[in-house]
Amino acid sequence: MPKIEKRKFRAETQKVLNILTHSLYTNREIFLRELLSNAADALEKLRFTQSGGGEVREAGLPLEIRVSFDKIAGVLQISDTGMGMSESELVDNLGTIARSGSERFLADIRAEAAGGEDAAPGKEAGTEEAGTEEAAGEADPGRAAAEAGPEQEGDAGEGASGGIGGQIIGHFGIGFYSVFMVADSVEVVSLPARGDAGPCLWTSDGVSGFSVRRLEGEEAAGYRRGTTVRAKIKKDASEFLEKYHLESVIRKHSNFLPFPIFLEDERLNSTPALWREPRSGVSREQYDEFYKYLTYDEKPPLDVLHISVDAPVQFNALVFIPDSEQDYFAMQQERWGLDLYARRVLIERANKDLVPNYLSFLKGVVDTEDLPLNISRESLQENLVLRKISRTLVKHVFNHLEKMAETESGRYESFWKLHGKYFKFAFNDYVNKDRAAALMRFSSSAAEGGCIGLDCYIGRAKPGQKEIWHVSASTPEAARVNPHLERFLRKGVEVLYLLEPVDEFALEGLGKYKDFSFKSVEHADGAALDAFPDVEGAAPAPVALSEEEKAVSDSLLARMRTILGDKVKEIRVSDRLAGSPAVLVSPEGFSSSMEKLVRAMQKTDEAPAKILEVNPEHPVLRAMARICAKDPDSALLADLTLNLFDNVRLLDGSLDDPQLMADRGLRLLDRALSWYTDLSGI
Ligand code: ADP
Ligand code: MG
């Protein structure tokens, strides 16, 4: 008797299977793409092993994929002559959910079930043991899908959503298990390319678990090197037993696989190495199609660079700028990079030495003649050829972006919106930072909702202006009401709005641009702008205080100092305000947003005390001074002072106890109303 191994699926696997079998997908055809891409991966591995001089079984077998079907038996079969899997590999690789696609799929589907709000990426990354009972939790996507199932069945898969997770599966590819969307049961027979063990059979109904056993005697006869997947097709998926349908799906998703695919002995795909074709011979449609094949992205790319270089190093490359945002920080750290080929042999997927981090949004392939085929993946990192390729590639990308910025401003703006937040990290690239700076875009006080580059800023600077002024805020609206901005607006001096945390680091890292230094409006000293005339229509300067008023105002400041205590470092008269009553100023060095970031990194909530600058000419301060002269201990004066301070903290983004402000505000409202009603007799 052959040894039979029966095993349960791990909990994560079970969840994915639940979703797959209980929902109806409009795009379940992508299971075919998944199986074919696994076959191609196995063939790539074989080619890689062979090119490194490794021994493989049946070395003369052609590297190919064959698809066939048996309508009567209801079976679809996909076989390849790739690396194959041993008994233990069958257990490990097909018994566990693939780390690449599926965990992320689960996290996303969880988010979709919860209304798309919290994605909690990869939280349960495969830590559970096989068969645990966890599968019934609240956020369990399997259950959500099972509950949603019957409804969807009613509309025959034509619903807008395509079933829960339909979009997600299509986009990321969740691997081998997607076959259970169309199959009641699956058999995999594999004969590994290395070692002399015979073929093994893996079977599963995709519900409870799987079993694995060795094939012996007659059963084992007739198997070549590689893997054969046999899917017993579900009744409602019989289109996958139709030749024309299979053909159109394979052409749609797998046309660029670098190995021949035969459907019932007819060859389907033809031009795999598109990047080696002459540029003039490739149409935009072909590029788009290749991009979709490469990324699973539904949208065609924003742009493509087809690069062919002979010196100082030989390589061909197809590099795409996606037209959708890349989620690099959160989840795609694994995926960024370009696929590296040496003479059409895949050396490494998502190689991260070909482009710097700040270009991580690029997708594509690089193929070189100058790398030995048998290079080990480890020694790639120090490789000089790779470094040369990278340098040349980056230069090409810069040329391309500069040209786009100059001649296609609309397209460039789209590029910036999608990928600018990564590109800004180019401030780290010592060699290219000046070119990068010129490509950066910022919102500004004069940009009217759009974005401007530093050259544009400089072009509009006042004669004699030496600084590029900036202010940090979460939105342009918040920037606009920042009291520090007031006199810049009055003088018509443009200010960049830094709306993302990285912006300030980027400017700091750049140091300066051409002859201009970067400076926060918070650090503008009074005299810096005096030389520039007021713009026409600017608010008139307020009426100066009389001697008598000045004395009263001084005692108000002293009183406020007592009321605020060590909440402030100092109170002083401002020379930067006109329309605002007060503003907070950092003692030195950091701007307030930088300081917040540092505080967050040091995990301390304690804000260092700041300087409160007041504008005694403002009506609010004038009135407070009069109250103070009459009754310095007035409770009203204390409330007014504290609320004014909170108001300023609110604008500064450093108010951390808003409920106190609300409470006090209500008290002030109450008083104002009772005076009003008393006076007017309402
Ligand atoms: P992924 O391809 O993202 O790793 P899959 O679920 O598609 O995830 O496949 C899981 C693993 O099973 C693969 O990584 C591979 O090791 C193995 N595998 C699947 N199909 C084949 C095949 N046709 N030949 C050899 N190994 C395979
Ligand atoms: Mg796969």
Quick tags:
single chain, 682 residues, alpha+beta, Heat Shock Protein 90, Ribosomal Protein S5, domain 2, Rossmann fold, 4 domains, 9-stranded mixed beta sheet, 6-stranded mixed beta sheet, 23 strands, 37% helix, 18% strand, elongated, binds adenosine-5'-diphosphate, binds magnesium ion
List the helices and strands and how they pair.
Layout: E1 4-8, H1 11-22, H2 30-51, E2 65-70, E3 75-80, H3 87-95, H4 102-113, H5 141-154, H6 166-172, E4 183-191, E5 200-204, E6 209-214, E7 226-233, H7 243-254, E8 261-263, E9 266-267, H8 284-295, E10 303-309, E11 315-321, E12 338-342, E13 345-351, E14 363-368, H9 384-407, H10 409-423, H11 433-439, E15 441-444, E16 452-453, H12 454-460, E17 467-472, H13 476-480, H14 486-491, E18 495-498, H15 501-510, E19 512-513, E20 516-520, H16 547-564, E21 568-573, E22 582-585, H17 592-601, E23 610-614, H18 619-630, H19 635-652, H20 658-680
Parallel strand pairs: 2-8, 12-14, 17-18, 17-20, 21-23
Antiparallel strand pairs: 1-6, 2-3, 3-7, 4-5, 4-7, 5-6, 8-9, 10-11, 11-14, 12-13, 15-16, 15-18, 19-20, 22-23
Bound molecules: adenosine-5'-diphosphate (ADP) and magnesium ion.
